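HUMAN: Mind making up another protein with tokenized structure?

ASSISTANT:
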Amino acid sequence: MDQFKLVAGTANIEFAKKVALFLEKDLAEVEVQRFSDGEINVNITESVRGQDIFIIQPTCAPANDNLMELLIIVDALKRSSAGTINAVIPYYGYARQDRKAAPRVPISAKLVADMLETAGVQRVITIDLHASQIQGFFNIPVDHLTGSVLFVDYIKNKNLPNPIIASPDVGGVARARTYAQNLGYDLVIVDKKREKANVSEVMNIIGDVEGRDVIILDDMVDTAGTLTKAADVLKSKGATSVMACCTHGVLSGPAFDRISNSSLDELVITDTIPLKDNHDKITVLTASNITAKAIKRIYTNESIQSIFI
């Protein structure tokens, strides 16, 4: 009998249900309540003694509440004598604060890693970190899954007549190049200058997109400022169509309005973060299957790499 249990936080319960369905397991009974002042209370209502626990909880908005809820669930499990505690964090919040980019600023991604370890997490499973080096912030195993297997199949099935991959900035070239190599497509780069967080200015397109079907690859889309400006510039340079594939659909602030009013033809995201509203231009793929496969392989001590081959 499988001795592992799935525990779901409240951040993305539908995603957790999909993972449980794929694994043919029920979610463990956990009560998560909030006091009137916002404090979180957790009650594990079934025995977890000696069992391997996988907590499914992205730290998306409201990031502080969801992170704190995850930490409290971990503490409850630790005090309930769980065998191992594995945090499945499809979207790892605070990942953009991964270095000292200016004097007197925090490295919040490292702080979150320290908090998770201190609480009692013994392994982290996550998808498409904003920066791969965040794995090194942990002193415990980190399984870094990628959404490439989802997007590559989707792009192939589109049968675009003249496709080309685009990196939204210089920092994303390695990710975009991997996709380009897997698909056998050419690569262009959007060169931009960022003045401050969530504000960007597209400066130039490195490469020729005349008559091409452009596919922008990124790990996340937040306010969609960079993405929509890039789409507008690519269209002005002669692109026939512009599609974007971004693993995490943060989509905060003016994102939906920007997408509606831009030259972007389609935005493809995954369900690591619950989509607030449906949108004609947005397609959602599920990352629950690769997450479930990873959980199963971790529990049975099999290679996770085989998921992506």
Notes: The CA atoms of residues 163 and 213 lie 4 Å apart.
